[in-house]
Every structure is written in C-alpha cells, then in structure tokens.
Amino acid sequence: MVEYPEPKVVVSQCLGFKKCRYNGQTIPDDFVEKLGDFVNYTTVCPEEEIGLGTPRDPLRIGKKDDEIRMVQPATGKDVTKKMQKFTASFLEGLDQIDGFLMKNRSPSCGINDVKVYHHLDQPTGSDRGEGFFGGQLAEYFPGTAIEDEGRLKNYKIREHFLIKLFTNARFRKINQKQQMKDLVKFHSNHKYLFLAYNEEAMRACGSIVANHEQHSAAQVFSNYREKMHEILAKPPKYTAIINTLHHIFGGVSDNLSQDEKQFFLNSVEEYRDERIPLSTLNHMLKSYAIRFDNDYLKNQVFLEPYPRDLVEITDSGKGRNH
Ligand code: SF4
C-alpha cells in the first residue's frame, strides 16, 4: 500500500495560527486546518519577524528609482533591506522542506498575485508581482510544492499541490539513506503517476535508476530528483490521465466480465465529460488490485497519491486544465 510520510510545510502564520495580520486578525482556512492532520507545519510571519509589531500600519511594494522597494507609507519606513535580510536568513536556515503554503496577495508572503505599484510615491497604477518573502521560495527550494491559500480553493490546483507535496516527502525519506533498492521501488510505485504527468521524463527517470553509467548513489539520487521535479512542474493534462487509466485497466481487464469492462470504460467517458471525479475511477482500479491480489497495482501511487481523507467529497473534476 502507498505510504504517506509527513510532509514538512512552511505556512503563513496568519492562516489560523496567530492573530498577526496588520489589523490584529487571523484568517483561519479550512484546507490549512485539515492538512494540518497530515503534515508538519513550520509557521512564519515575516512582518512580525522584522519587528513591525501587531497591529501595525500596512506595507506596500512598488518601484522607486528603478528598484522594487517595500515601505510602510504611514510611518515612512523603508523595510526593503530588513525584509530581504530576514528572508535570506530564514530560508537558508531551513532544511528539507517539501512545500510552502502562503497567504495570497500579501506584499510579504504573496507568491505571484501581489500589488506592485508602478510608482511608490504615487500609488495609482499597479501590476501583479511577487511578495518579498513568497517570491523567493522557488529560488531557494526549486521543485517544492508552493501555493497560496487562495489558489488552493481550485480543486485541480489543490490536487496537484497535494500530489507534489506527498511525492516530495516520500522521496525525501528514501533520500536520507540513498539506497538504490529504495529508489528502484520508488520509481516502480510512481510509474503510473509519472506516466500521467510526463511520459518522456518518466522514461528518463527509468534510465537514471538503471544507472548504466555506474554513477555513485548520491549522483543517481540527485539526477533523479531533478528529473522528478521536471515531471511535477505542471499539472497533468486530463487526456494523459485518461491514457493512463486505459493503460492500467488493460492490465486487469482480462479477468473482468464484459459488463464490468463496459462499466469501467463508460465511467472513463463520464470522467472525460467532467461528470465524475478521478478518485472514483481510481477507487475502482484499486478494488481490482485487491480482488486480483495484484501487489504492483496496489502499490501504485497514482491510485491514491495522498491520504484519502484529503480527497474532498465535493471533488467534481471541475476546473481542470485542458
Ligand atoms: S501574510 Fe505573512 S506577513 Fe502578513 S500577516 Fe500573514 S504571515 Fe504575517
């Protein structure tokens, strides 16, 4: 069966952990709370960390002399350097993180939907850009699952985030000992998941594991991680998911009756039409794996890539990226 080691996640502190917003409030979030049962959170509030106190006057970011700066208009403070220094020292001090869950639109924590004024002194026009802290995460931790709580309301984005998060945690676990047999098993268990995401890169991962060049284990794990990050960089296309479903089904269908076969194939079409979620089909495939005692299939991460309790009942498959 699929294992779910506890992912290590850095989370914005105001998302239900402490009243640290500029106005002395907190913003509890159902998903952040639910995820907390399965992950190990490290909380952070960059604005409190640089000594601004709570409550405080709000910050703003914008251009000044061709540079993006962070200021507190009400007090005239320019905290650009302080925030950059804190961000670098905090992120350099972190070890082995699987993901980040940030508050959206915050000039500090926001990842990519932050108001950046064209002119700091005349706040009329603005674009969307990165927060001072949130914008640095991908650079320090490439390949980690990075999202904000606003985007995670979308089912497809949330699913991709969870898949990436738990896959990173599983890899982190085997990377501690760097035993080749563990990597062989990891690759075997993730075969169908990676097939759905990116077939070409999945096959490249297979070559890395085969290690015909006889690299050291450390080198093989490093090469594999880099390729795995490439695989998980973007959510899979639903057409590739359907191909994967057919591929898996082909391996068990010989043992099924004609009616059972037709029922599954009709269900795939219902998934294609967004009338049922992927989890329903995966559940059916899992039941075949149990019924035919197919260990290879039982261990496939594709069928249950993250804990079942995190699969929303309202999972409708809507909002998928075509
Ligand atoms: S968004 Fe970030 S900086 Fe702002 S209150 Fe929340 S944790 Fe603190």
Question: Can you tell me about this structure?
Answer:
This protein is α/β, with parallel strands linked by helices. It folds into two domains: 8-153, no CATH class; 179-322, no CATH class. The chain has 13 helices and nine strands. It has helices spanning 30-35, 46-49, 80-93, 137-140, 155-175, 180-189, 191-197, 199-210, 217-231, 238-252, 258-272, 278-291, 295-298, and strands at 8-12, 40-44, 60-64, 67-72, 77-78, 99-102, 114-117, 126-129, 145-148. α6 (180-189) packs antiparallel against α8 (199-210), α8 packs antiparallel against α9 and α10 (238-252) runs antiparallel to α11. The relative contact order is 0.11. The chain binds iron/sulfur cluster. Residues 12-14, 20-21, 45-47, 103, 106, 108-109 line the site of iron/sulfur cluster.
At a glance:
Residues 313-322 have low confidence and may be disordered. The protein is of the alpha/beta class and 322 residues long.
Task: Name some characteristics of this structure.
322 residues, alpha/beta, 2 domains, five-stranded mixed sheet, 13 helices, 9 strands, 12% strand, disordered C terminus
